[in-house]
Write a structure and sequence with these properties.
Elements: E1 5-9, E2 17-23, E3 26-33, E4 38-43, E5 45-46, E6 51-52, E7 58-62, E8 65-69, E9 76-78, E10 94-100, E11 103-107
Length: about 110
């Protein structure tokens, strides 16, 4: 069973962009796509640049898969699985996230 934590209001999110939240000491990049009624959470760490910057990346999709492009070296990470499109050996952690009563909730379990 997931332990859901309230982290912010929906109004704190930037539409079609990312924000970073510090959740239990972890930097989590949160992406909000209101047109798709979607919200995603992925570890903010860029394993190639070795810094926490993914929340500043550009979002879009590759063949229908929602993704974020790292602002440093431009690798693309799936927002659903964390898998790097350019290097199958690299995968970032993704987190369960939802919107309930205009609040954003996340679970770090899983």
């Amino acid at each position: 069973m997931s332990q859901w934590m309230d982290i912010c209001a929906v109004t704190d999110l930037q539409a079609d962009s990312g924000v970073c939240a510090l959740v239990e000491g972890k930097q989590v990049a949160i992406f909000y796509m209101p047109k798709d009624s979607a919200v995603y959470a992925i570890d903010n760490y860029d394993p190639f640049g070795k810094v926490h910057v993914l929340s500043r990346g550009l979002i879009g999709d590759i063949k229908g898969e929602p993704m974020v492009s790292s602002p440093l070296y431009k690798q693309h990470f799936s927002l659903k699985t964390g898998q790097c499109f350019e290097d199958e050996t690299v995968k970032n952690k993704v987190y369960a996230i939802r919107i309930e009563n205009n609040r954003v909730e996340i679970s770090l379990e899983g």
